[in-house]
Amino acid sequence: MSSFSARPVKECLDCFSRKRLKEVLIHADPPYPLSTRSKRIYANEMTDKDHVQLIEVLDQHPGPVLLSGYSCDLYDARLKHWNRKTVKAFAEGDREREEVLWINSVAARTMTETLFNF
C-alpha cells in the first residue's frame, strides 16, 4: 500500500475498510498528529478528526494491526486496550522523541505465537 503522505486520508480509510479480513495485516504509519510536531511537512496532512477516524477504522479491523506514531494523548486515550511499545528516537533537528508502536490484540497474539512457537 502507498504511504499516507502520498495518498489522501479518505482513500486510505476506504482501503482499510474494504480489506476487513482477519488475514490482512495493516501497518499504518500516518502523518503524526500536528500536536506532536513542530511543522507541517506532508502533502496530505491529517486533522485530529482524521486521526480519530483512522483509529476507529483500525480498531474495528479483525486482523492484526500495527500503528506507528509519536506518543500523544489523542492515540493513548483511544488505544488503552492495545499493547504499546516505545523507543527513544531523534527527529526534527535532533529533538528527542518517543516513538510508539500500538499493537492490537490480534497482532500481539500472532507475534507471540510466531516468535516463540517455531
Can you characterise this structure?
- With about 120 residues, this protein is an alpha+beta fold.
- The chain has one domain.
- It is about 35% helix and about 25% strand.
- The protein has 4 helices and 4 strands.
- A 4-stranded mixed beta sheet has the order 1-2-4-3.
- α1 runs parallel beside α2.
- It is globular.
**Terminal Cα span:** 29 Å
How is the largest sheet built, in terms of strand order?
A: 1-2-4-3
The percentage of residues in β strands lies in 15-25%
Q: Could you tell me the radius of gyration in angstroms? A: 14 Å
User: Structural class of the helix and strand makeup?
Assistant: alpha+beta
Question: Using DSSP, what is the number of strands?
Answer: 4
Gross geometry: globular
Q: Kindly state the percentage of residues in helix.
A: 25-40%
Mean pLDDT figure? 82
Ranges where pLDDT stays below 50 over 5 or more residues in a row are none
- Helical segment tally? 4
Order of helices and strands: HEHEHEEH
Tell me the domain tally.
1
Profile the largest sheet. 4 strands, mixed
SSE layout and pairings?
Blueprint: H1 9-18, E1 26-28, H2 48-60, E2 65-70, H3 73-78, E3 83-91, E4 95-103, H4 105-116
Parallel strand pairs: 1-2
Antiparallel strand pairs: 2-4, 3-4
